[in-house]
Amino acid sequence: MNYDYIIVGAGSAGCILANRLSASGQYSVLLLEAGGKDSSFWFRIPVGFTKTYYNETYNWMYYSEPEKALDNRPIYCPRGKVQGGSGSINAMIYVRGQASDFDDWAAAGNSGWAFRDVLPYFRKLESHPLGNTKYHGADGPIRISPMKDAVHPICHVFLKGCDQAGYQRSD
Description:
Blueprint: E1 5-8, H1 12-22, E2 29-32, H2 49-52, E3 62-63, E4 76-77, H3 99-107, H4 115-125, E5 126-127, E6 142-143, H5 153-164
Parallel strand pairs: 1-2, 5-6
Antiparallel strand pairs: 3-4
């Protein structure tokens, strides 16, 4: 069989890309994943990462090379080996990278990777409770749930200290 696109990895990005490419019916897409289905109960609750995070059935169990700045210790780098990829083993946490990280990539010669360039794609990705705003989208395939009121009390103490130090808060 012939395909217009072959995507390797059915993680968050691969699944969304496959969906976008095939949604119109114009393209045929083959989505390949080395792992199995993410149908286990443990993928559906945040505490489930305790069953998947160190389980080689669902996780490639990668480690970095020894890091000189860490007394030559390697760093554990979990990567999902399951439909849903690393997004299935990360305790249901969604964190977007800092704008300055993307801008640094662009400044290093990677055109198209500045924050202003990638922001529209983040917005298309999200279904955020704030709705369509400058930084968030409301109609994307990934539903975002704010956790501000459910965090450990020490987080509020930390943020109060940031306020006192003059740092501006952002939603």
